[in-house]
Amino acid sequence: MRTYEFSAISALLLCTGLSATAQRTEEEVPLMRPDERKIVDAQSIEFNKALEPIVADAAKSTVTIWGRDSGQPRKLAYGTVVADGTSILTKWSEMAGFADTLYIVGRDGAGAKAEVAGVFTDEDLALLTIGAEAVESENITPANFHASDLSLGRFLVAVRPDGKPGAFGVVGVLERNLRETDKAHLGIMADFQYRGEGVRIANVQPEYGAAEAGLRSGDVILRVNDREISGLQELKNALSGKSPGDKVTLRIESAGKERDVEVLLSNRPVLGQFAGGRLNAMERMGGELSRIRDSFSRVVQSDMKIKSDQIGGPVVDLEGRVVGITMARADRTRTYIMGSEAVEELLKSKADTVAEARTKTELLKKELAEQDRAMLPEMRRQAKPRDLPRTRRHLSDLERLLGRANRELDDLGRR
Amino acid sequence: MKIKAIVWIMLAAAGSALAYEPAKTVADIVNLEKKVAAVSAKTMPATVALVSEKTGSSGSGVLVSGDGLILTAAHVVQGMKEVDIYFADGKKWLGKVLGANYSKDIGMVKMVEAGPWPHVKLGESKPLEAGDWVIALGHSAGFDPARTPPVRFGRLMSDGPGNYFTTDCTLIGGDSGGPLFNLDGNLVGINSSIGESWKNNNHAGIDGFREDWDRLLAGETWGTLQMNPMANPETPVLGIGMGMNEGADGVPVYKVEPNSPAAAAGVRVGDVIRSVDGDRVREGAELQEVLVKREVGDKVKLGILRGETEVEIEVELVKREELFRIR
Predict the structure, then answer these.
(1) Chain A partners of B153 at a C-beta cutoff of 8 Å?
(2) What is A184-267's CATH superfamily?
């Protein structure tokens, strides 16, 4: 007989950046009645069975990718058969440590050796080439990508090589760019202690738009174009629709006088990546996550509950057309999917070699470390006790990013 | 046994509208997809983020009237008089916090500006049962101007405890207070808490708001934020103390609270409760599990062994807190 200590196992859903309540094992759904379990179990079976006919075709374009870890086979990810059927698109970070031992297994169990032919480093995707013997199989055929309108609420089904639906989800957020460095950047640090209307500038970052336009510490931003700014969040909101290279007119109050200033927006520095992210125990509640799960340039967000070692395979719509591939299990609520149009464009672009991919990762790590050194004294100076949770969150996000870069390097080193 | 099966089938036939929308064929699922897409588009403009300027904590809410009444979770507005309201377009407005009932984790906020505001219709939560399809929205991980609040689709896993119920619409921090809709786009619940499993996402039923509407509107704050359903002040109870069953088959009544519904219905000390609505209960924990899944106001038939004779007594469940208030 279990006891129900809800206080120990559940977490309220307020978002404060502080970590969630401790977790421990529990029944999946406490207090679920046997009659309820019977209904939802039957419903799941019925639902999956209904989806089977629509994944049949795409299953032939889905393979499992295996690697060897000290001789032992390990399932790494799924892959999507592309181009003329000799190439497999899959998740790079899952392959990186196994690059010389890769092989694929298709629907009929036929295997073939695979080699990394190129890496789309920024999207964490690898292009593998497989042997001709696999290409002969009628159960390994290239995916027929269909540029579908992935509007809100559309149903998405991830495919398994064995012809069964792998996971189900809906389009939760329209296609967007997750890359912080592609976002518009003003080049100021806000004064968190300021309580008046607008946003008071604590610091101006040299070489960015705000500095070039002559803004200074102490100036207050009152407006972006025609939009009045009441606080920092609203300034962020007003800039979120803008792209690097856009110009905005800021209404500035400086020493009691107001003036309009035109500022050229630039790309956000790498540093911005950890300010937006959020590390929270809740993220992991519900299953294993992909190691690289953000910074994609063009993805749809779905609530698809997919296992991290099933990422990389095709996703179909209810007509069975391949509308994209799975990119990452990002947290309890998010799976990212790259739509067919973006996949096809990516396949036309030039891939990095493995060596280039490695150099890029090293550079990112170095840049992060430098930003870290430059930023920490600034954070310390500005921090007030009530800012501590936020600062702590930033630091843990930074750790996570450094961890990610380190893991990638380790994986490459093991190769 | 035979008779019971027949009754069940008749009920199913008469109340077939209550069973979940079928998903047996691709055509069924295409039909579901259409509804989910329509609900997402219809309800998005009324879904908002509630952000505290002071602490930076962020939750969600939903507008239910043109003059700007917002329903949310009690713990989202805890300790606040005012709260910043963000719409998907990033525009900020001010909200005045009205009332909250922490026992149900429900709260109310009113837009300071007169409106008219986009809003959704209220549905009903009491008829919900396992398998019913639902759609959740909310500002997961806090307000993000780069995206609209993510849509999630799932079904009811389990009804109860009390006014709460569980779905497999995956939620995370920031989703608190966000809306849960049925396939018609009517509001049936408010996001409250999660457990470890992705199947364990808890919502407060909309009917709980109806019951407390006037008090919430008047700005009253009461109740206890209690995640253990057995200890929740609004847990439905009979008003008895349970004895140890010492190998006996059933739950001996050790005490009957005066003025409780059990007392009014004639339950006596020494009775042994052996079934609830025909389902056997062998020990105290089982009885508690059955009752915690019911709602206040529900009537349950207790099968009781009194000495040598079996008696059946109907008892209307009350809130645990009411029991002690009466006394």
Answers:
(1) 153, 169-170, 303
(2) PDZ domain (2.30.42.10)
